[in-house]
Amino acid sequence: MDERTANRPRGRRGPAPGTSRGPRLPRAEREAQLIQVAEEIFSVHGYHGTTMEAVAEAASVTKPVIYDLFGSKDGLLAACLAKTRAELFALLREAWRGLTVNDLEAGFRIGILTFFRFIDTHAALWHLIAVEGPSSPGAYETMQETRLLHAREIAATFNSLPSLSKIPPVFVEGLSEGVIGACERVAAWRSTRPDVTAEFATELVMMMTWHGMSQFVEQFTASP
């Protein structure tokens, strides 16, 4: 018996005892409401400590509503991570808006700083992903997809600059993967070092990535 079947109430689809049903909302609004409620509960109690009953009660809905929308607790966590990813990508695109090759280093730095500051505002959820994420198939798949899309975002930023068009795509892809790996490892390390600021973490990643990448970029952008 899977989680969805095992946790469905039997012979009853009304609100849980002692609770009242919330107002009927359009599907998209209900999904957004449940994701917001679930993110708060996941952040406090972790993946294993969060129950569908707790999410349902906090949102004033029945468990079948959540199962119908997300399929399982795993699916609900994946939806939370997808929402968080969309917010991060929107901030990165804004940080890189109007970027030119002349301010590539500054743009690279602000992109990394944006990542670390974003992690700071979602510290509990980041810890959940780093510590418990691998035990949740949905969360693991969502994080793998996030890494892929994040690499594509960085590569797209490089590729959007005409002066960098000479750089072979395979190099851009590889460099993007390396930057993401460095950011994630430093972010995981920072979770055990609250004294390390986002700015200091940014400079660490710049030392590990940009100062070598800049020479590589110059090789392909130098005038013939």
Which features does this protein show?
single chain; 224 residues; mainly alpha
Helix and strand layout, with pairings?
Blueprint: H1 3-6, H2 27-49, H3 52-59, H4 63-70, H5 73-95, H6 104-121, H7 123-131, H8 137-159, H9 169-190, H10 198-208, H11 210-221
Helix pairs in contact: 2-3, 2-5, 2-7, 4-5, 5-6, 5-8, 6-10, 8-9, 9-10
Question: What does this protein structure show overall?
Answer:
The chain is mainly α. 72% of the residues lie in helices and 0% in strands. It contains eleven helices and no strands. It has helices at residues 3-6, 27-49, 52-59, 63-70, 73-95, 104-121, 123-131, 137-159, 169-190, 198-208, 210-221. Helix 9 (169-190) runs antiparallel to helix 10. The radius of gyration is 21 Å and the shape is elongated. It starts with a helix and ends with a helix. Mean pLDDT is 79; it is low at 1-20.
